[in-house]
Amino acid sequence: QVQLVESGGGLVQPGVSLRLSCAGSEFFLDYYDIGWFRQAPGKEREGVSCISRDGGSSTYADSVKGRFTISRDNAKNTVYLRMNSLKPEDTAVYFCATVIINTACEIAPKALWGQGIQVTVSS
Fold this sequence. Notes:
Layout: E1 3-7, E2 10-12, E3 18-25, E4 33-39, E5 46-51, E6 58-60, E7 68-73, E8 78-83, E9 92-101, E10 105-107, E11 117-121
Parallel strand pairs: 2-11
Antiparallel strand pairs: 1-3, 3-8, 4-5, 4-9, 5-6, 7-8, 9-10, 9-11
Protein backbone atom coordinates (compact mmCIF):
# COMPACT_ATOMS: atom_id res chain seq x y z
CA GLN A 1 0.00 0.00 0.00
CA VAL A 2 1.37 3.41 -1.00
CA GLN A 3 1.66 5.54 2.10
CA LEU A 4 3.77 7.75 4.28
CA VAL A 5 4.35 6.51 7.80
CA GLU A 6 5.34 8.80 10.66
CA SER A 7 7.09 7.58 13.79
CA GLY A 8 9.03 8.90 16.77
CA GLY A 9 6.38 10.88 18.59
CA GLY A 10 5.49 10.65 22.24
CA LEU A 11 5.13 12.42 25.55
CA VAL A 12 8.13 14.46 26.63
CA GLN A 13 8.98 17.21 29.08
CA PRO A 14 9.70 20.75 27.98
CA GLY A 15 13.23 21.35 26.83
CA VAL A 16 13.97 17.87 25.57
CA SER A 17 14.34 16.66 21.99
CA LEU A 18 12.53 14.27 19.70
CA ARG A 19 13.19 13.09 16.18
CA LEU A 20 10.26 12.32 13.95
CA SER A 21 10.62 10.10 10.92
CA CYS A 22 8.53 9.97 7.76
CA ALA A 23 9.12 6.80 5.78
CA GLY A 24 7.75 5.90 2.39
CA SER A 25 5.97 2.58 2.03
CA GLU A 26 5.82 1.45 -1.60
CA PHE A 27 6.52 5.12 -2.29
CA PHE A 28 9.88 6.58 -3.32
CA LEU A 29 10.37 9.81 -1.38
CA ASP A 30 13.39 10.91 -3.40
CA TYR A 31 11.13 12.05 -6.24
CA TYR A 32 9.31 14.49 -3.97
CA ASP A 33 9.67 17.57 -1.84
CA ILE A 34 8.39 16.62 1.60
CA GLY A 35 6.89 18.75 4.32
CA TRP A 36 5.97 18.44 7.97
CA PHE A 37 2.74 19.92 9.27
CA ARG A 38 1.07 19.95 12.65
CA GLN A 39 -2.36 20.47 14.07
CA ALA A 40 -3.10 21.22 17.69
CA PRO A 41 -6.56 20.70 19.20
CA GLY A 42 -8.90 23.50 18.20
CA LYS A 43 -6.34 25.06 15.87
CA GLU A 44 -5.80 25.10 12.14
CA ARG A 45 -3.14 22.96 10.51
CA GLU A 46 0.23 24.71 10.43
CA GLY A 47 3.15 24.20 8.11
CA VAL A 48 6.28 23.42 10.11
CA SER A 49 9.09 22.66 7.70
CA CYS A 50 9.75 21.46 4.17
CA ILE A 51 12.72 19.98 2.34
CA SER A 52 13.44 19.67 -1.36
CA ARG A 53 13.87 16.30 -2.98
CA ASP A 54 17.65 16.60 -3.03
CA GLY A 55 17.84 18.08 0.45
CA GLY A 56 19.39 21.28 -0.85
CA SER A 57 16.57 23.60 0.18
CA SER A 58 14.47 23.79 3.31
CA THR A 59 11.92 26.09 4.87
CA TYR A 60 10.82 26.61 8.45
CA ALA A 61 7.94 28.27 10.22
CA ASP A 62 9.04 31.20 12.35
CA SER A 63 7.78 29.40 15.44
CA VAL A 64 10.33 26.58 15.02
CA LYS A 65 13.32 28.31 13.41
CA GLY A 66 16.51 27.60 15.32
CA ARG A 67 14.92 24.68 17.19
CA PHE A 68 13.80 22.25 14.48
CA THR A 69 15.90 20.77 11.70
CA ILE A 70 14.55 18.90 8.71
CA SER A 71 16.73 16.41 6.87
CA ARG A 72 16.41 13.41 4.62
CA ASP A 73 18.17 10.20 3.79
CA ASN A 74 16.98 9.14 0.36
CA ALA A 75 18.89 5.87 0.62
CA LYS A 76 16.66 5.04 3.58
CA ASN A 77 13.59 6.55 1.91
CA THR A 78 13.04 8.67 5.03
CA VAL A 79 12.64 12.32 5.97
CA TYR A 80 13.38 13.44 9.51
CA LEU A 81 12.34 16.30 11.74
CA ARG A 82 14.68 16.88 14.64
CA MET A 83 12.91 18.91 17.31
CA ASN A 84 15.04 20.48 20.02
CA SER A 85 14.07 22.61 23.01
CA LEU A 86 10.49 21.45 22.80
CA LYS A 87 7.82 23.70 24.27
CA PRO A 88 4.26 22.94 25.39
CA GLU A 89 3.02 24.92 22.40
CA ASP A 90 4.66 22.34 20.12
CA THR A 91 2.06 19.84 21.28
CA ALA A 92 0.15 18.66 18.21
CA VAL A 93 -0.39 15.82 15.79
CA TYR A 94 2.43 15.95 13.28
CA PHE A 95 1.93 14.90 9.67
CA CYS A 96 4.26 14.54 6.72
CA ALA A 97 3.07 15.08 3.17
CA THR A 98 4.25 15.66 -0.35
CA VAL A 99 4.73 19.35 -1.11
CA ILE A 100 6.07 21.67 -3.78
CA ILE A 101 8.78 24.16 -2.91
CA ASN A 102 8.93 27.23 -5.13
CA THR A 103 9.17 30.60 -3.45
CA ALA A 104 7.35 28.96 -0.56
CA CYS A 105 6.33 25.50 0.50
CA GLU A 106 2.87 24.48 -0.72
CA ILE A 107 0.91 21.30 -0.34
CA ALA A 108 1.18 19.36 -3.59
CA PRO A 109 -1.89 18.71 -5.73
CA LYS A 110 -3.30 15.31 -4.76
CA ALA A 111 -0.80 15.26 -1.92
CA LEU A 112 -0.01 12.04 -0.14
CA TRP A 113 -0.35 12.40 3.64
CA GLY A 114 0.79 10.26 6.50
CA GLN A 115 -1.62 9.23 9.22
CA GLY A 116 -0.08 11.59 11.76
CA ILE A 117 1.67 11.07 15.06
CA GLN A 118 1.08 12.68 18.43
CA VAL A 119 3.71 14.83 20.10
CA THR A 120 2.87 16.00 23.59
CA VAL A 121 5.15 18.35 25.51
CA SER A 122 4.16 18.59 29.14
CA SER A 123 5.72 18.64 32.57
